[in-house]
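Long-time lurker, first post.

We've been arguing in lab meeting about whether NAP would sit comfortably in this protein at all. Half the group thinks yes, half thinks no, and nobody has a model to point at. So I'm putting the question to the forum: if I give you the sequence and the SMILES, can you give me back a predicted structure of the complex? Inputs are below. Any interpretation is welcome too.
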Amino acid sequence: MATTSRPKKPVTNCRSPKRPSPKPLPKPSPGLKPTTMSSKTAGPLAGQVVLITGSESGIGRETARAFCRLGAAVVLNGRQPARLEATRQALAAEGYLVAACVADVTDYAACERLVATALTAFGRLDVLITNASISQRAYFADMQPEVFRQVFDSNVYGSVYPLKAALPHLIAARGSVTFISSISALNGMPSGSAYCAGKAALANLAHTLRLELADTGVHFGVVYIGFTQNDPDKRVLDAAGQPVPIAHRPPRWQKSQAQVAAIILSHVRRRRRRTVISALGRLILVVHALLPRLGDWVVLTSQRRLRKFYE
Ligand SMILES: NC(=O)c1ccc[n+]([C@@H]2O[C@H](COP(=O)([O-])OP(=O)(O)OC[C@H]3O[C@@H](n4cnc5c(N)ncnc54)[C@H](OP(=O)(O)O)[C@@H]3O)[C@@H](O)[C@H]2O)c1
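Top reply:
Settle the argument with this. Predicted structure of the protein with NAP, as tokens:
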């Protein structure tokens, strides 16, 4: 669907605010601490345009709110029109500058529409956060091949395609790209083969792009998220591809979505290469590097004792 030829016209399935941001882009401010400022479209990120995939719900929605609070304009995305529109309306009602585009990020043409929405609504694109993802609750031996592909694609092509579509604009802005990964990708996790493989691939992608595109000034980073509170209606895929609730996680192990969003915001503003969330995540990182056999022993033991945690 071509959308770039008539700049102010809303794209089908994509909603833009009435007033495009006229402000010039301030320079990125690495080193600035996140603040709790809530002055609607004013703030340290005023004039910056942020695209967050999978932001109709969960961590993506809270991350959108965190960027909005500092004055950024945000393009929201998801696959479910009603849920996406509800999120857009909620943030717009809070006074924030938001647009939204229904797009499956594993479809390149849809990603072109998504990026066009940012340009149509706000005239530029500074930050891309690839957050959309499908997770799983299924052992590899039981998984339908198509289910593996779906989970893997949502994490890998769901990051590659939005980035391919956005890259020229991010280069023009000397912007920032953050791939959302998981601490389960740092060592691998039983019942998460396609998810962990997809999330792990993002680290190498970020590193390679950092080298290939070093001259462009674009920031490439990865955030490894640990256990986080989930929306009650969050679903993951079982071995047959059926949506099922996520496996049980003790609430005391979980961060709130707002806490995680604040960490993602800080990661982007500081243009960090890697942010590992939670003490458990940092422990996995160290044990995987220095004592990998011990790490595997802990996982295998916990798998026997805490089946509910994996299944
Ligand atoms: N929550 C945790 O404990 C945790 C832990 C580690 C890492 N993470 C990571 O954090 C990120 C956010 O997770 P979350 O807990 O907030 O999950 P979530 O609530 O399920 O959010 C994921 C979003 O991505 C969307 N999405 C999935 N596939 C898509 C596609 N092909 N195109 C467009 N949108 C798509 C989903 O919408 P649909 O309704 O269209 O599926 C949903 O809005 C994910 O990358 C996840 O892997 C989360």
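For your lab meeting: Strands lie at 14-15, 49-52, 73-78, 98-102, 127-130, 176-182, 219-225, 235-237, 243-245, 274-276. The first helix runs from residue 58 to 69. Whichever side wins, do check it experimentally.
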